[in-house]
Amino acid sequence: MLLQNREYDFVIAGGGLQAGLLALAIHNHQTDARVLIVEENDRLFGNHTWSFHGSDVPESVTWLKAVSYQHWPAYKVKFPSYEKRINLGYCSFSSAQLNAAVEAVALQGNLDIQTGDSVEAISADSLQTASGATFTGKVIVDCRGARRDHSSIRCGFQKFHGFEVELEQQEWPDRLPILMDATVDQQDGFRFLYVLPLTSRRVLIEDTYFSETPTLDRQNSLSEVKNYLAERSIENWTLVREENGCLPMPFNSSMKPNATAPIRGGFRGGWFHAATGYSLPLAVRFAETIATSSPKKIDQQISLLATQNRFQATFSRFLNRLLFQLVSPRKRFEIFRRFYRALPDTTIERFYAHEFTKLDAARILIGAPPRGLTPVRFLNSFRVQPCPVLQS
Question: Counting Cβ atoms within 10 Å, is residue 260 exposed (0-12), middle (13-18) or buried (19+)?
Answer without folding.
Answer: exposed
